[in-house]
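Hey L., structure's done. Input below.
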Amino acid sequence: MALTKQTIIDKIEVVENGIVQVRERTDVLEDGNVLSSSYHRWVLTPAQDLTGQDARVTAICNAVWTQEVISAYEAQLASQRVGA
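Output:
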């Protein structure tokens, strides 16, 4: 009976305004069979520092975050501040 733990990025989603949502799943296994899973989620906004992110997450962000997407996201934030 060997218990092990594995953590993987199991979901990377891009939403309309360029925000990238990441889900990390942690599995506890006994002899290769999953006993339990837990999840941790976080979001990354266009042009955010990607230091320490998984290579797949970084690659997706770099592909999606064009200058056009970054500018549109920053404009959206500015309009929200003015309207507040």
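The helical segments are 55-64, 67-83. Residues 67-83 form the longest helix (17 residues).

-- N.
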